[in-house]
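Example (one chain per record):
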Amino acid sequence: MLHCRPMLNTLEYLDLHSNKLNGPMDPIQEPNLVLLNLPFLDLSFNNLSGNIKSCMLVKLRNLSLLDLSHNNLLSLTSCNYGANSTLPMIIEFHFSSCNMQRFPSFLNASKYLQLLDLSNNQIHRSITKWEAEGWENLTTLNLFMNFLISVEKIPGKHLYFLELSSNSLRGPFPTPPQNLSFLLISNNELVGEIPSKICNLSFLSVLDLSKNKLGGTIPDCFGTFGNKLSMILRTLNLNGNQLEGSIPQSLKICFNLEVLDLGNNNINDTFPYWLDTLTNLEVLVLRSNRFHGGIQNFNRTFSFRNLQMIDLSRNEFTGHIPPELFENLKSMKDIQIPLANHFDTFSNDSFDGNSGLCGFPLSKKCGNNQELESSPSTVADDSETTLVWKIAAMGYGSGLVLGLSMGYIVFTTGKPYWLVKMIKRNPQERGRIHQNGRRKN
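Predicted structure:
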């Protein structure tokens, strides 16, 4: 139980996160002088319970940051009266992993609100146009893992980060705000084609539409000359849809692309050698499609220099696996495990659907003495640093499936500071927030 003493009426920063606080939120239901004047309140990761009414919460007029996340028995409901009430100074509102049932439209008049995290709650039905009005300065909206069926309008005219993954969104693709840099709508039930208007998002860095029911072909516009998106896009994840056709060669001018995941679709194409122009590419997933033909046309100029994962399993590739594939992928290194022993763990099951492939590291021999009996020429002797080529195509014996989630996005964006900052900010860093919405340096 949380008790506040009147002598603390000048308190500006109250951080009690990750303790063992329990019981109902009486101080919020009956605000005292301490909480009424408090700019910063963090009670996340506790065992607090009860039903917070919005008409009582808005009495905390000075709050700039409120974090009640990860109190699983805590809920927030709107009042029938006081519809025009809001938290006028709020900048960050964290209510993740609680028991919220409805979208908090009472916050849409909070003109300083920048970050709204409602992930892992029980929000059902839709976000209506009326509920999405306002939100003038909202830059980060996290609605991951709820039960949303549709979004009539995406809140936030200047939204930078939008997370709608793991909901029940149906129908066509929603119209995204123009300033988006991170658009994550995986694991929903979106249908139709990927609209070409998505290429008008000039600042889009990460696009994750995996695990939906999108069909048609991949839009050519992703790599159109003169399109700013071709210079910004770093992650394109379309895994687990119903896409057909071939990979548009316009992607080869997305020079900053680091992750391309097209696995588990119906793409009918040959191996895209032309992607070697993407010198920053780190992850290439083509598994479980209809790719066909040989993959032996690698040469000494093969330039996937930064590739760290490649998954070609469950396709219709034929021919022998060229040694150049291993010799040239210089980024696939690990100095802890001997190369030969590592490859000995691979099995034929890792290449289900590529029955025409043969040669090292597979046990299947190629005809005409083409089997590579030894490991690639880059294997070092005992006096040298040993190398391990972490080839996801081999599947580590079971056909590796890259389950791309928030953890995957952290990997692909390099420095995960933006995500850590959003989900759980450092209290020392976030605590000094002025009531005017600016931080002290």
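Caption: Residues 165 and 186 are 5 Å apart (CA to CA).
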